[in-house]
Amino acid sequence: MTRDPRPLRRLLAGGAVVVVVSSIGTLVAAGSRISGEPMPTGGASKARCIPARLNASALLPGSDLTVSPLPASYDASPHTQISLLGVPASEISHVTVTGSFTGVHGGHLLPYSQGDGASFVPERPFDSGERVQVSGQVAAGSGAKEFSYQFTVDYPDAITELGPSAKTALTPGAYQSFHSAPELHPPDIDVTHSTPEAQAGGDMFLGPYTGPGQAGPMIIEPDGQLVWIDPLPENVYSTNLQVQTLDGEEVLTWWQGYIPQNGFGLGEEVVANSSYEPIMHVVPGNGYKADLHVFEIAPNNTAVLTVFNTIHCDLTSGGGPREGDVTDTSFQELDLKTGLVRREWTGVDHVALSESYASPNHVSAEWPWDYLHLNTVDRRPDGTTLLSGRNTSQLYLIDDRTGQITTTAGGKHSTVTMGPGSETAYQHDAETLPDGDISIFDNGGSPFTTHSQSRALVVNLDVQANTDTEVAEFVHPRPLQASSQGNVQLLPNGDWFVGWGGEPYFSEFNPAGEMIYDAHMPTEAIPSHKNEHADSYRVYRFQWSGTPTAPPAIAAESAGHGLTVYASWNGATKVAAWEVLGGSSRSDLKAVAHASKSGFETAVKTPAEAYVEVQALDSAGAAIGHSAIIAG
Fold first, then answer.
1. pLDDT tens across 109-156, in order?
2. Is the pLDDT assigned to residue 355 strictly greater than 60?
3. Measured between alpha carbons, how far is residue 36 from residues 63, 151, 628 in Å?
4. 20 to 30 Å CA-CA from 291: which of 41, 126, 328, 538?
């Protein structure tokens, strides 16, 4: 996601990840030395953030240890831990960490739950600009080898955040309201094209964060009817709602927090169960907040997420000022059971500033140069990770052990031959498909339009032949030009689901390229509200089953000589019908009306009753929930 022409006003709703682990004891001693760089005695220039050699290896010479911060780097957080990945924690010992200003740091060597490494977590932070020496020993046969390396701590440039409010502000426009749930006001959804074959693919998962209606994670049915929304306070927004698997169970995950005008996120990742109860709040390690672009859980209880770290930097190598400011886009792989950082990869250590198409002019601490804008971190089964840099218009393959870029596709200096139609511009959401091809949302425009319209693109990136070839593309008939955001999802039945990002549309195409479904959120700009139509960073489609812990909601209004009873249940997916119970007293209710579920809220005509209650019935007619009893 990148800066939209209109300012964005967002903020994080607090939360943190809890790390509870035990330290390991004294380990293997003595042995031969693994060579490391000598320890400089002084501090670094305040403007230095680019290493002397780009794209260096994170694998320590002669060892199996992949480390972060990267050796000889200049962009480590003052709150960094020392990540040592690649061997069991029991084979790492005698870790010593010394700052050139702050001296020796005490801390704890804490193992990863996956059994393949440990992080040294210092007891106090480092100082900006100081060089940090790390040394230790790693088991080698019956003895041990020594290792030693150093890195330098950066000078952070904090982005100002606006505080959240308890008030939920509604932009005037097209949003829904309900009798039984007056606190809910999701944006309108207009389904303009839907074929029978598009009805069985599951629900749609959105995160509207601008425009009419409430902001928050939101699920809708194919007909546009609401399933669930979690309205967030003013200045707190969400993106990237999807279904993932954790410990063998399907969960909902989404990002929520503050979106500054720069177009990245400062917040947390939320993991919720099928009852919509948060079971985990995940933030990055090393003192950062989670960016909104990526959160992907793997079966081994690890997750990757993106971080946008703004730091002081000499930008002359990219045509900017010497005393400048840059957004150092990075990703972390976290151990979800401990919260420890297993590895961290940072943009300025691997991608040259000169690769960017974004301008380095007029940068400041409030407007740092977002030269890379990482928006994809796709771990692949072959030991590589696929990355997408929006502002370099490049895809990267990196080696997971070394962190080094091995292949660059597109942009100013592609290492592969780009076939006709395969080049992307300001792209998002590059994902490896089961057959090895790559799907991409190719924005094609902003700040410079290179394609006549945005498209969903499938390419074959052949690293042996060094070629990148277009396989397929899908375009909207309007056509649409999304200046930011967007995603492409291959569905289990072979269809393609596309969220059009900065344009408030989402569509489905069959394998032949025919559009079989199309819908959109409100498209009308509101002049008094800075032309904000609705946005959702991504839109997905999943099968989902939810059972809220809160009871169904009920309301009743007089209607002639009877009542109209309104029933809804925010998040319930198994309701097939509603039964209304009524009577002259709370203790003497009986069935008085029945109606099939009709959208999010069902209106049922009943005789006049002193008291009423609704029961939710599943497809077998069994009661699965009941509301409070209210006066008729």
1. 999 999 999 999 999 999 999 999 999 999 998 899 999 999 999 999
2. yes
3. 12, 11, 69
4. 126
83 pLDDT higher than 50: yes
The rounded distance, in Å, linking the Cα atoms of 502 and 370 is 18
Could you give all domains of the chain from N- to C-terminal order, each with its CATH number?
A: 553-631 (2.60.40.10)
Confidence at residue 545, expressed as pLDDT on a 0 to 100 scale = 98
Instruction: Compute the average pLDDT of residues 313-327.
Output: 96
CA dist list (Å): 245 to 297, 342, 544, 561? 7, 20, 12, 51
Q: How far is CA 451 from CA 331, 410, 418, in A?
A: 29, 14, 16
Comparing C-alpha atoms, which of 541, 545, 474 is closest to residue 198? 541
Q: Which helix (H) or strand (E) holds 608?
A: none
Residue 11, pLDDT above cutoff 50: no
DSSP 367-423: S-B--S-EEEEEE-TTSEEEEEEGGGTEEEEEETTT--EEEEEESSS-SSEEPTT--
C-alpha–C-alpha distance, residues 239 and 228, integer Å: 15
What sign does the dihedral 478-479-481-486 (CA atoms) show?
Answer: positive
DSSP result, 415-470: SSEEPTT---SS-EEEEE-TTS-EEEEE---SSS--SSS-EEEEEEEETTTTEEEE
Which residues face 578 on adjacent strands? 595, 616
* pLDDT on residue 528: 43
